[in-house]
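Re: the 391-residue chain
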Amino acid sequence: MPSISHAPESPQVPRLAAIYARVSTTDQADKGYSLPKQIDACLAYAQAQGYRVEDHRIFTDDFTGVSLNRPALQQLRALMHTGAIHALICFEQDRLSRKLAHQLMLADEAEECGVTVHFTAVPASERTPETQLFTNITGAFHEYDRLRILKRTRDGLVGRAKAGYAPGGRPPLGYRYVKHPQKGGYYEVHAKEAALVREIFALYTTDGLSIGDIARRLTVERVPTCQDRRTQEARKYGPGIWYTSAVARILSNTAYIGTIHWDKYERQTSPSNPDNKTGWRKKDSETWQAIPVPALIDEALFQAAQARKSRNLQEKPRNKKHEYLLSNGRPRCGVCGYTMAGRVSTSPRTGVFIAVAGRSTSPSCVKGISRLRRSKSRSGRPSNGSYATPR
């Protein structure tokens, strides 16, 4: 009898899976989440379900779960669209996202790509409509839990500010931060730094030095800045480099007259990415929380410094009204039409403005320019040859 040949069995195609783990500082502190713990649990789940996970398909993020713009999550979503994996494994729903709407969107996206989403807390053998409902309820609770944590944190900070506790972080020049034995802290005067603050105010109000002159003087003397005194990080140009912005902040700081304000700014979302809060916006002064601290100077000296800063701001050339009318080639010669350079003049002899010929003045109008200048010197007003707008 002829022998019967059997076709070789095709090798079983391995089921491939990817793991996504996410952590943030709050998660690690409150719930004990850590990336190794999540990855180990997901690997054990994958082995029990018969999935193979390659090392380069383990994605981790150290990012907030509110936003979808996470580097590793974006890579994972791109991988799902290639069809290279059959399953996505996460530790819990809130690791994938802190928002229920985002969880449902990612689950729909995975389903369209033929990828099954697994959570270690809900085995695949127990997937029923009831467990799906429970998963959605759990996702909504995670979103609520996040908002509750934010509110409690905010309430705690507000309570400390109302109780008179100074905020943490780097204290202004002239103070040191001292912690209370139980909670909170307060500012204590640093005698050496306080003397420097008083010297800066005296140089500005009494000696009449400008903010730039004060910065240059302190830099020449290599006086340590506030950043030099608070951190050990090496600065680009070395210690003792004062910028005008640092001096201006000292002259405007109300802490030196006994009051600091907490909650002055709020985070502002990026116009290109609403999930990313990149900037700060000053809030209404009525919402600020005043906290008393020891004063270093008197109110009169501080107000004198503010008055001079306000006066200097008004007298800056760039802030003079209608200055733009004499820029960008707007004044033109009345004889040849060539552009002229203009500037505001405060001298009563020269009138309200001065217009001078540019480099490319036509030779044919030299006499005309001389005639305009003679007419201006006699009348004190520009003649019809100048197109500058009178004030």
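The chain has twelve helices and twelve strands.
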